[in-house]
Amino acid sequence: MDRLLEPKESLLSVKYRPDGETVYENPPRFCWMPEKDTDEGISYFLEYSGNPEFSDSRRAEDIPYNFYTPEEAFAPGIYYWRYGVTGKEAVSRVRMVIVPEEAAKTPLPGRAVRYRTADMSHPRLWLNQKQIAEFKEALKTDPDYCGFAAFCRDSVETYENASFVKEPLPYPNNKKVISQWRQNYTTCQQALTFIRSLAVGGRIADRKDWMEKAKEGLMELAAWNVEGPTCRDYNDECSFRVAYALAFGYDWLYELLTEEEKEVIRRVLFLRIKQVADHVIIESRIHLSLYDSHAVRSLSSVLTPCCIALLDEEGLGAEKRAIVRGWLDYAIEYFSTIYTPWGGEDGGWAEGVKYWESGMAFVIEAMNTLKSFAGIDFYKRPFFKKTGDFLLYCNPVDTRRASFCDQSNLGKYPGHKAAFNIRQFGGASGNPAYQWYFEQVFKREPEIDMDFFNAGWWDFAFDDMVYRHDYGDTSLTGTPEFDTVKWFRDTGWVAINEKMDDFDNHIFFLTKSSPYGCVSHSHGDQNGILLHAYGEPLLIESGYYIGFRSSMHLDWRRQTRSTNNILIDGQGQYAGMDKVKQLHAVGQVEEVREKDGVVYIRENAAQAYQENVPDVTDVTREIYFVDHSYFVVVDTVEAGHPVSVDFTLHSLASFEISENQFALSMEKAELEGRFVYVSSGMEGITQTDVFEGVNQEEIQGLDRQWHLTMRTGKAGRQVIITLLVPSKKGQEKPVFVMKDDQGQGAGFYFQHDGRTFSIQLDGSRRYERSSHVF
Question: Is the CA virtual torsion 325, 327, 329, 331 positive or negative?
């Protein structure tokens, strides 16, 4: 056969996979670069075989996009695969994949049989008619079955005597204003909650007055301008909520709607879905260019529920029915094959814990709907079995200002929606640590904070009722087990949690050096560190959440100078908005290990600095957590010319500075630090409470934060050794005896509680990474 000319991969694009690797899912997930700039009129075939000659092969035909999950699991072994374009003889080069015995078996039913068992009556979203009848029967003996009474009190009755919200207004001069953008999508969330609460409550409680009120709201919503301030291109968060509200109302009020009203809803809903689907599939092409955060999320929040509500509806007509089915198939196949572009087998999430929260919240609802409606269970995929670990270890219950990336709740403890998410994964996986996390969040804060990041996004009473119906009583059973060190290789995050379940004595340390660079909601903070100990944030994620693309966001939060990190000749890592450069500015965690009471982490961020410091060749940070109590951080920088290094730290309190030492004193904890060794000499240590370069109007009235900088002299190779010792307030501080030998084999010896830990230098006073002694 002729060889197909394969399009070249890019940093932004999907990759040819699998390509020689051992997979952790069975069957393998196949991806390749799409053939043209458009997917219209193109389909593919895929061949796979147990031998490279393809003498005994299987062939999948008419694959509409460049990704595919087979319908059946493979027998363990080595396989070969290739693809081609339908109607052409040429095929791609042959690639190999190894399917091990232990790979999770997660095939996907093909399009021809995918919805065969689905109940096509209404409603379809969450409960069907049979389940509603069972729910009603259960209420006869338990009026608060699954929290229904609480749902009626907290959600339904809120809207019982309320008017439906007014359609949001456009921005002044159609120029986005963050506060109005946020208020508009909050209004749309209220519209959704109004319709959903009254429809569900009315249907289950046989309250026709509630259902009629929900219908009035639904028809008002359908009259909103499809091309106005709530359309996808104007405010996508508004469009997501409006589309879902229309779908849920259509689905749950179906029997109450006249044929004319159904036609109105179908017409408007189809247009709303099309706006989102066109962006996802045609404009953004997330099956080619992976890193569109909102587009990926809209698969869960719009395409899945809305297309299920309209699936095979006669009133749509044949052409639109086929289009809706195609959109739903696309979402399902993306969930099965490419999802998630933000993580992998370890369950990490490159956009950070807050965007994990929103991403998981919507995908959980989509997966629950798919499982109930079509019997497709994505919880069996390895990512979903493990992703609760990311929240558990990288955003511990008792910490604040101690995680990376954009966070709308920056400065607060982990939120209630995050707790709901991890409870869901606990219910699906049986992991008691996840249920423990949920219970601890509500033990710390029984009342849910109704700030914008909750009020504009979630209805907790509804979500709780859904979970309790689907998973029953999942109160903590068994003893949770916690790892001291957790390395998320997929996203380049490493968490140390000493005594995580003992909040008074918990030491939490987090670092990242990510292969995702600063793309999307990530920042230019590779090799950054955070320290939270004994109930206090010590070395913090600095700044405030004002809004995406605000001055605080662009000029401070995304920049390396806002992190506990280093600057080279005053320059940080690339943190601009060019996606290609964002994905080039990567870091790498090279090694993590534990031995004899020492945790060792080595990470390198040289590539992240090269846009701004082109001849830098090495930016390595090594972290030693010693005797479960203190940290030694070794930074090595090499460049093609003499450079100075700024070592930066950030805190909620001012630092006490004395010669080469610094200290923090908080209410519950203290931190003592010392620059043990600076190879080029220290020029001085300074601190400020100014957010340099930030529009001061954005931060007026906000609490001060302090930013420490230690500056070195200039040299082509720099080594900085820093000691960090957290301690509990009021307790005797640990005593260190440090010795700096000047002779051959010189080094630094840290004696603490009778144990010695050493950092060795050679005779030329050079630190060698291979010479540390455990």
Answer: negative
